[in-house]
Each structure stands twice: as C-alpha cells, then as structure tokens.
Design brief:
Layout: E1 4-12, E2 17-24, E3 30-37, H1 41-49, E4 58-65, E5 70-78, E6 83-87, E7 90-92, H2 100-112, E8 115-119, E9 125-129, E10 138-147, E11 161-166, H3 168-177, H4 184-196
Parallel strand pairs: 4-10
Antiparallel strand pairs: 1-2, 2-3, 4-5, 4-7, 5-6, 5-11, 8-10, 9-10
Length: 202
C-alpha cells in the first residue's frame, strides 16, 4: 500500500519540476514533502499511486581509456554552485532511447569526443538514486571502455566542459589536493581507480 496519497504541482519547467507530495508518516499522520522531479505529474502519479515502474532519468558513465590506461573524468561549470566541479560524464535518457547503452554512447561522445568500445554490463547498475531526500531522480551507473581523442566539437552551447584523462597517480593527487570541488560519485571512482587501476574494469 502506497504511503503517498496526492501529488500537487508547485512549479513546472522544461527540465525539472517541484511537487508537493501528501503522504502518511509511520504514525499514520498526513504530512507534506517537496519533491524535485524530471517527470511530468501524470508519470509521477503513475509511479506513486498506481505502482508503475520508475524509469531511469539519466546515465552516469565510468569510462576507461584502455590505450592510454587512464580514467575519464570531466570538469564542468555548474550553475547551482557557481563553480567548476569534477564529475563523471553523464546525461539524460531521451524518451527515444531504446536502452541506457544508447544514451551512454551518445553522451560520452557529446561531452568528451570519445567513442565507447565496450559496455561492461557485469559491472554496471541499471538504477541508482542520486539524492532521495530531495528528488526521485535515478541513474544507470555504467562502466565502459572507450577510445579516441578528446574533442569539444560535440558540446552543446550550455555545456562548459573540460575532459581530463587521469592516471592512477593523478587520481590520488586530485583526491589529496582537494583544490577543485568534487561530485561524490567521481570522488569514490577516483579512490577505486587509484587503488585498482584497470582492474576495476575487469
């Protein structure tokens, strides 16, 4: 039985909306929670009230450049924090995408210029939640092998991204220096790569 009873729209924009969610707490008292979501109201109601499967919103890409023996990370300007931040390549899943691999191939090319050679399905996870206290947004976390040369040719106008290929030693240096803000996912991946190198992609 769903604890959520009602969904009301607070603000609706092209990419993200705010909803007031009426739900019952553990004492069976009705409460409200503000939720940020990329979904339209009818899709959110389908998930909350009708038990429909939650769709993955995005992909996060953990890519290894085999020829250079380096991890692929990006440094991107993010408006909410008004800073450049280390992240992993990522992107939204289009409604036309057949599966998350289509998004991975497109987004890695767009953000870095690199080409996916192999997706490591045995290592990847199809749905992880990013900040469930605030949003229902979820992502497929995908490990892949890539090749090619870095390029900014495919970036969109609003994407301010620098691609960086990182060795094991450089990964450790980034963690220790802590000079540039880091997304928590890239922090954990940098730690693993500093310890394991290419073995984390086997």
């Amino acid at each position: 039985m769903s604890k959520i009873k009602e969904v009301s729209t607070l603000v609706e924009t092209k990419f993200i909306s705010l909803y007031d969610i009426k739900y019952l707490n553990k004492c069976n008292e009705e409460k409200s929670w503000t939720v940020a979501s990329r979904k339209r109201k009818k899709d959110l109601e389908g998930m909350y009230l009708d038990g429909k499967k939650d769709k993955v919103d995005a992909v996060v890409i953990c890519a290894y450049h085999k020829e250079k023996d380096k991890l692929v990370i990006i440094k991107e300007f993010r408006v909410p924090i008004n800073k450049y931040i280390y992240e992993l390549p990522a992107g939204l899943v289009d409604s036309n995408d057949n599966d998350f691999s289509t998004t991975v191939i497109r987004e890695l090319k767009e953000e870095t210029g690199l080409d996916v050679v192999e997706i490591k399905e045995n290592l990847s996870c199809e749905q992880l939640y990013l900040s469930p206290g605030m949003t229902d947004e979820s992502a497929a976390f995908v490990y892949c092998i890539c090749e090619g040369e870095i390029s900014k040719e495919y970036l969109e106008d609003d994407e301010d991204i620098e691609t960086i290929l990182v060795s094991r030693q450089e990964a450790m240096k980034i963690i220790k220096n802590n000079e540039t803000p880091m997304d928590i996912r890239v922090y954990l991946v940098l730690q693993s790569f500093a310890l394991l190198g290419a073995k984390m992609f086997e």
